[in-house]
Request: fold
Amino acid sequence: MAESRAPGRMWSQAPQGVAPVRVQVAVVIPCHRVRRHIMDVIASIPELVSRIYVVDDRCPDESGRHVEALNTDPRVSVIYNEVNLGVGGAVIAGYQRALDDGCDVIVKMDGDDQMDARALPRLIGPILRGDADYTKGNRFYDLAQINRMPRLRIFGNAMLSFMTKISSGYWDIFDPTNGYTAIHARVVAQLPLAKISRRYFFETDMLFRLNIVRAVVVDVPMDARYGDETSNLRISKILFDFMLKHVRNTGKRIFYNYFLRDLSLASIQLALGTLFIVLGAVLGLRFWYDSFATGITASAGSVMLAALQIIIGIQLVLGFLAYDIAAVPRRTLHPLLLSSEDES
Reply:
């Protein structure tokens, strides 16, 4: 783990005989109806952080003005969105400012005081060590802590996690809606920020975009922490919308990774498997319709012909899934990328 040697600076680990590199860590805090908690959140952020960006997302409680009136921390800058863009839009505004200011690692924390700032060094540690490009909290590591979470939230999170595994290609992560995240600035610069979902689907869409650029994502254990805040996220309202977006992202990811950017045995397995399943289903329906119309039971050979195609198709698709699970990105991206300072 990197250690702090000066206020507002972190020192990344370096090979033996090479001087450590100073790293600027920024924290982005999207603000919407968090006036009661925002000053406590700012006060809890450790000294290793160089800059704090408070993004007032057209907050009706004027959280930004509230911070400007009470803040004494020189690291804090307030950004105002002219219109409400949602949590994603607010975070992206903070990302862009952090990039402009030359920050190296960007942490996203919510302004409702649900995220423990003491866990921030653990969150950025894998990035500083070169083990990850993007890290996120996972509240499901400690079974004792899970009991503190509302039952509906546990169920909804489990469903969303499974859908996210399929659409993002990161089969080894969980708790996708956890907004406590960190990312290397060089990776942010590779993402199509204008295309990322602006509202509650932001964290999930980020994972999809990260997989497209082959970034390494790592879960970091976090405690479930709930206070007197009221969540604006309602699983019942967003589940169907999330499902549609997951289907869209799944199709895009598979097309980009297995047919547009590369063509492998897995691509052939998926194409043939899908073809066999469709042909078997169509043939089976045809035999069923003929049997229903004529009153003559379909022969065993006809049934087996349809069933065999479906079975072969399923086996081929399972082979593709096994390949896809094993293809989770493992080589970190940001050490391979040049920063704007390096290019100049």
